[in-house]
Amino acid sequence: MKNIAFIFFFVLLLPLYSLAQDYEPMLQEGSFWDVCSMDHDTGCYQYPRRFYLDEEIEFNGNTYYKLRKHQIVNSEGGAINCFGPPGSEYTFVETTFTYSNVYIREDIIEKKVYVWAVEPWNGGTSYQEFILYDFTLEIGDILPANTYSHFYSGSDMVVTQVYYDADNRKTIWLESDGGGYYYEYTEGVGGTSGIISPVLEIFEAPDWLYCHGNAENQNECSGYLGTNDFIEKSFNIYPNPVQKTLFVESENSSSLELFNILGKQIYSNKNKKKYSIDMSNYTEGFYLLKVTDMVDGYVKTFKIVVE
């Protein structure tokens, strides 16, 4: 009878075990995120810092991680005012850091990441829990406006695309109902703006995630600009600003999607290494070009200016 009870209990646990195995956790031992802010006018990547998982702390019955912020410096230990071209060497100051006022936890069964933070809108002063990432979402699902990761968009975010990379990690692409904002986050990594940064605006890029790693896989982040070094070299897009024809070249076959400032897709193509896009019929202004490497599934979004 005891054996039967054990088998029954084991069978009940199997779905939960399988669910956890199909999901790559974002918060792992030694996880870190290298983030900086981009100035589109100068092309400089400024204010670089590294976020590290630190010790655990409990709030309201849940266990969260503290987040340390380390300054990133150049190879000589000096301040970085502008990264310059991708491939610039950098390191980080390990002994000096500050703590973020945002705390983070992950539920691998729910496939969700939460933060314990002060309400970022309406001048909030008290801490509460917010959803940061929800990896259960599918196309057509909505992430509510009060989700921490896109609080200042002021609107719900709709999932318009879901795809998987070469490591079978799920990536979710969201766009705001009224246009003007978009967001993307990936299993095991987080958002394109970094671990706790808000959504990207069409006209601005508050923060960019340059490199991510953990104790098991450092991704060479301590020496170079990590995966974005590869990505920038893989996608060659010119001229920008553009008046007539925009050329896109990639090492591998890629897919292209062009969006206007309202978030509407106005062009798409795929399965090529070289593209030429006639931009002469588009009005002057800003556009977003989303390029997806069809070999490894990596995505890079570029701001295109039509003159």
* Total DSSP E strands: 19
Q: How many angstroms separate the termini?
A: 78 Å
| SS-based class | mainly beta
Q: Shape, please? A: globular
Helicity, in percent?
Answer: under 10%
> What is the radius of gyration computed over CA atoms, rounded to a whole number of angstroms?
21 Å
Number of domains: 2
Total helical segments: 2
Average pLDDT taken over every residue: 75
Largest sheet: 6 strands, antiparallel
Element order: H for helix, E for strand: HEEEEEEEEEEEEEEHEEEEE
Strand content: over 45%
Low-confidence spans: 4-21, 199-205, 223-233
Description of the molecule:
This protein is mostly beta strands and about 300 residues long. The protein has 2 domains: about 25-225; about 235-305, Sandwich (Immunoglobulin-like), CATH 2.60.40. Helix content is about 10%, strand content about 50%. The chain contains 2 helices and 19 strands. The chain has helices spanning about 1-20, 225-235, and strands spanning about 30-40, 45-60, 60-75, 90-100, 105, 110-120, 125-135, 140-145, 155-165, 170-175, 180-185, 190, 200, 210-215, 235-240, 245-260, 265-280, 285-295, 300-305. The strands form 4 sheets. Strands 8, 9, 10, 11, 12 and 13 form a 6-stranded antiparallel beta sheet that branches. The longest helix has 20 residues, at about 1-20. It starts with a helix and ends with a strand.
